[in-house]
Write a structure and sequence with these properties.
Number of domains: 3
Radius of gyration: 23 Å
CATH architecture of the largest domain: 3-Layer(aba) Sandwich
Shape: globular
Structural class: alpha/beta
Strand order of the largest sheet: 6-7-5-8-9-10
CATH class of the largest domain: Alpha Beta
CATH topology of the largest domain: UDP-N-acetylmuramoyl-L-alanine:D-glutamate ligase
Low-confidence stretches: none
Length: 430
């Protein structure tokens, strides 16, 4: 079956799933493979649960005309997404970066939705499977698409660009993360820059943070790149206003000044906010509507969140962590004028051979006198030699047991760590 033929089927059945347990009625099931599963095995179940067709790549599971046999399911999914992308002919913005790409994407979607019918990456579906699923979620009513792109090895952003074909691109920043896959920091720079390379080669539009030296170097020669964050050159820049726990700033848009109050914790989020403002301004969203969209955006999914429990105030930023984001979160927390501070830090993952030193480096940057309690969670943090007043736990379950017997009350607590620690599981004990 050709992609053109499959596309005609997709047009009649545009709901896509890769999980037979969540089979949309009359949708399409793509039988993907993983390290520990084979989607072909569940194709029949997807049909029984309501899917119109199952796309498989093992002839052993071909049972009827409802089964579409292809050479490789993943490749077919990606080709179908790209074919769909070419039919739509809408602006697509690609976003990548080490830190802040999901928050920037969410803020940008909020801003652009003030003027356009926007479709964008849901959650963290930013890999070789998530990107095609995002593209296939776009409909004929979509006026503008936003695609988040993640990577953990060289060449991955290039491949995702080939699927999504973005005409506009933003790299939030480039830092030290996923070194297990990249091996070197230079490879991280090369991979992230694959987005800018693609945009440049296709005469598209680049956005960049003028305060970032690495990004400023990458766009040398591109005189049309739109900058933000530098007061001397950029159409959009911001000045942080220290007042309370949430990020507040004076945002300057083409020399017009606006006071902006966000629901984000962490001054480091100013770059994410300015990126959303700059792109919104480029796409001619009214200034006041941009400010309104930013102010009403409320983070979720364990990112830059603040909320109160029965016993404590929690500053939760535990979706992702690497040395740069960890240090930024701690520095911001130390600068807050609030009493009774505590730290709960979880391991940073995928840092390669230097992981232990990176964890030591984080600890060496902490001003211990600022905290009543410091808790370290994870095998790496638990293995460090630290002061007597710091408690270490090899995993979340051990920490939960301790908290259950030794409740922490009346504290302002920063919770920061990689998603794999599942630090959100301790919230009920705080």
């Amino acid at each position: 079956m050709t992609i053109n033929e499959l596309y005609k089927i997709y047009q009649k059945h545009p709901q896509i799933t890769t999980d037979s347990r969540f089979a949309p009625k009359n949708g399409l099931f793509f039988a993907l493979k993983g390290e520990h599963f084979d989607g072909n095995v569940f194709a029949q179940k997807a049909i029984e649960n309501g899917c119109a067709y199952a796309i498989i790549d093992n002839p052993k599971f071909f049972k009827s005309k409802q089964f579409i046999l292809v050479e490789d399911v993943l490749s077919t999914l990606q080709q179908l997404a790209n074919y769909h992308r070419q039919q739509l002919k809408i602006p697509v913005i690609g976003i990548t970066g080490t830190n802040g790409k999901t928050t920037t994407k969410e803020l940008l979607a909020s801003v652009l939705s003030m003027k356009y019918n926007v479709a964008y990456t849901q959650g963290n579906l930013n890999n070789h499977i998530g990107v095609p699923l995002t593209i296939l979620s776009f409909t004929e009513n979509t006026e503008l698409g936003i695609v988040e792109m993640g990577a953990n090895h060289l060449g991955e952003i290039k491949n995702l660009c080939a699927i999504a074909d973005p005409g506009y691109g933003l790299i939030t920043n480039i830092g030290k993360a996923h070194l297990e896959g990249f091996r070197t920091f230079d490879n991280i720079i090369k991979t992230k820059n694959e987005l800018y390379d693609y945009i440049t080669q296709n005469n598209g539009q680049i956005f960049y943070n003028a305060k970032d030296q690495i990004l400023s170097q990458l766009i040398i020669g591109n005189n049309d790149a739109v900058s933000y964050g530098d007061q001397k050159e950029s159409k959009v820049y911001g000045i942080i206003k220290k007042d309370g726990i949430f990020l507040k700033l004076e945002a300057v848009i083409e020399k017009k000044s606006y006071n902006l109050k966000t629901k984000l914790i962490g001054d480091y989020n100013i770059d994410n906010v300015l990126a959303a403002i700059a792109i919104g301004n480029y796409f001619n969203v009214d200034d006041k509507k941009i400010i309104k969209a930013i102010e009403r955006y409320k983070p979720d999914n364990n990112r830059s969140q603040f909320f109160k429990t029965r016993n404590n105030n929690l500053f939760l930023d535990a979706y992702n962590a690497n040395p740069i984001s960890m240090k930024a979160a701690i520095k911001n927390f130390e600068q807050l004028d609030i009493p009774h501070k505590s730290l709960i830090l979880g391991d940073m993952f995928e840092l390669g051979d230097n992981a232990l030193n990176d964890h030591y480096d984080v600890m060496n940057n902490i001003d211990h006198k600022n905290y009543e309690n410091i808790f370290l969670v994870g095998e790496l943090f638990a293995s460090l030699k630290v002061g007597e007043n710091i408690l270490q736990f090899a995993n979340v379950d051990l920490f939960k047991d301790w908290l259950n017997k030794n409740p922490v009350k009346g504290s302002n607590i920063l919770i920061k760590g990689s998603r794999g620690n599942r630090l959100e599981r301790i919230i009920e004990f705080l």
